[in-house]
Amino acid sequence: MAVPTPPPPPVPPTKQQYLCQPLLDAVLANIRSPVFNHSLYRTFVPAMTAIHGPPITAPVVCTRKRRFEDDERQSIPNVLQGEVARLDPKFLVNLDPSHCSNNGTVHLICKLDANPFLQSVHRCMTSRLLQLPDKHSVTALLNTWAQSIHQACLSAA
Fold first, then answer.
1. Nearest CA among 92, 121, 91, 95 for reference residue 107
2. Which of 31, 111, 116, 140 sits most deeply, having the most CB atoms within 10 A of its CB?
C-alpha cells in the first residue's frame, strides 16, 4: 500500500530561488569590474569551444612585399604557385622536372590509369577542353576535369 507524500511547502514569492540565481548574483556583483570581460572569457570560452569548435577566421594575408629581383629569379610565377596551393586537396598537381625553362612556360603533370572509366573521362575531358578559351587558369582546367569525371560517372551508372 502506497503512502501519499504531502506536497512540498510553498515558497513565499519573495524568497523564490531560480536555478541560475547564484550565477546572476555573481554577474550583477561584478559587472562593473574592469576585468569582468576577461573573467567571462576565461570561464566560458573553453566550454563554448568544446561545444561549437574553434572560431572561423579569415586566411592570413602576408603583408610583406617581395622585392622585384626575387620575382625575376623565380621560375614559377607567384600567381600559379598561389593557385596551386589553394587548390582543393582532391587535385594532385606536380611540376614536370624535365621541363625547367626560363621562357615563362610551366609544365604540370597529372597521371591517369587507362581503364574503361578513365577512358570515358578522357573523352569527356577532350571535348570540354575544346570549349575552354586559349588562356585559362589551372582552376578552370581542374574544374573541367572534375566535370568530366562527374559526366563519366553519370554515363557509367
1. 95
2. 140
